[in-house]
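pasting for ref
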Amino acid sequence: MKKIANFTVISTPDKVIVNRGKTFKHWFDILTAAALGLFFSSVTYFFLMETFEIKSFKSIASTFVMTLLTLYQLTMSISLLIQPAKNILIIDKKANRLLLKRTVFSTKSFPMDGIRNFEINKHKEKVYSGGSAWRSLVYCTIGTTIDRKDEVLLTVSSSRIFTVSDQKLEKELYELSKMISDEIYKRWKSKR
């Protein structure tokens, strides 16, 4: 068993298993989304009570918008909470299959014959965060090509709540992704 940041790579004679632990940032994101959802639901309740009394277009529209915001925030907090953490990637050496758990409800299975190596890709996106503010979202993906289609196996993101430098974070995430992919590849190729 090898622990790399919040990832754990476990090797048995016939399987390589990757688990992802929940970090403080993950729990912070869940609680923030849930708190916003609860706040929006209380504001929605207030608007709903006002709508029954006033029955104007503005109050109906406000109630509708607040209901959508509430549903979005509560859905986001639930999806973050039930994100898979155990067995997110399994390489079954005996069956020569790669099992990929994207959600708690679905697992994809791929033949290992076409996989030669893992690729690491850096991603940097600009995300709107209110007002005139934009912030950078930096993460890396570990992927491979299966049947001529690119498939993302793991997403490696920061466990920090606040970051100072995107370049430094990008470098750290790339090095972390490289360590994880090297460990998976080494254990996959051993004793085959």
